[in-house]
């Protein structure tokens, strides 16, 4: 359910784009993200900081797209979001001496300190590269190709990256001894 909720705005964006075009899709993405944040606020009583950032970016870049009728702004949105996420990871580490990946995942998995560092830098680099790839696709292909890449290419690359991270982390996970009751 959480996965569907996370991808709710992008799926609606894709469907709306294929039916009514980029301007309608942009308006739907803004509305869907507002609904998503409202639902999370009501359900949990709070919203994660990155979700607020995502809402802000879609409202600013989507709003600029709608106001100017220029799709360039909405095409920049994923890049800005990726670069903000990667920067937040590196700034957290360099300025605040906090590994946000470790803080996010340490309740689920136990890893040595150096492995947490590798994960942090891997994710930050992944976000930086994804931002560059988005700009390349946005600037070198038509809008239809960019929208398809945004949904399928972006999610595919994310899935491959997450699987690779899982393989890396599996090297450090210790087997739990079986209970001998």
What report would you give on this structure?
α3 packs antiparallel against α4 (72-94). The chain has helices at 2-20, 22-44, 49-68, 72-94, 100-105, 113-140, 143-170. The chain starts with a helix and ends in an 11-residue tail after the last helix. The relative contact order is 0.10. The chain has 7 helices and no strands. With 181 residues, it is an all-alpha fold.
How are the elements arranged and paired?
Layout: H1 2-20, H2 22-44, H3 49-68, H4 72-94, H5 100-105, H6 113-140, H7 143-170
Helix pairs in contact: 1-2, 1-7, 2-3, 3-4, 4-6, 6-7
Give a short synopsis of this structure.
Helices cover 81% and strands 0% of the residues.
Number of helices: 7
What is the chains' assembly state? single chain
The strand count comes to 0
Tally of separate domains:
1
Summarize model confidence as the mean pLDDT: 94
Summarize the biggest pleated sheet.
none
Shape: globular
The Cα radius of gyration reads: 18 Å
Order of helices and strands: HHHHHHH
Outline the low-pLDDT stretches.
none
Structural class: mainly alpha
Helix content: over 70%
How big a fraction of the residues is strand? under 5%
Distance between the termini: 36 Å
Attribute tags:
single chain; 181 residues; mainly alpha; 81% helix
């Amino acid at each position: 359910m959480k996965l569907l909720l996370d991808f709710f705005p992008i799926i609606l964006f894709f469907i709306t784009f294929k039916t009514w075009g980029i301007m309608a899709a942009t308006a739907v993405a803004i509305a869907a993200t507002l609904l998503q944040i409202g639902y999370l606020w009501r359900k949990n009583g709070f919203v994660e900081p990155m979700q607020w950032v995502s809402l802000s970016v879609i409202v600013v870049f989507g709003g600029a797209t709608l106001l100017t009728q220029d799709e360039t702004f909405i095409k920049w949105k994923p890049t800005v979001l990726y670069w903000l996420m990667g920067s937040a990871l590196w700034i957290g580490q360099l300025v605040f001496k906090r590994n946000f990946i470790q803080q996010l995942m340490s309740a689920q998995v136990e890893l040595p300190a150096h492995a947490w560092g590798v994960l942090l830098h891997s994710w930050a680099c992944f976000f930086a590269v994804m931002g560059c790839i988005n700009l390349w696709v946005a600037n070198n292909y038509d809008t239809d190709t960019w929208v398809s890449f945004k949904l399928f290419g972006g999610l595919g690359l994310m899935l491959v990256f997450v699987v690779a991270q899982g393989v890396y982390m599996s090297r450090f996970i210790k087997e739990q001894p079986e209970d001998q009751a």
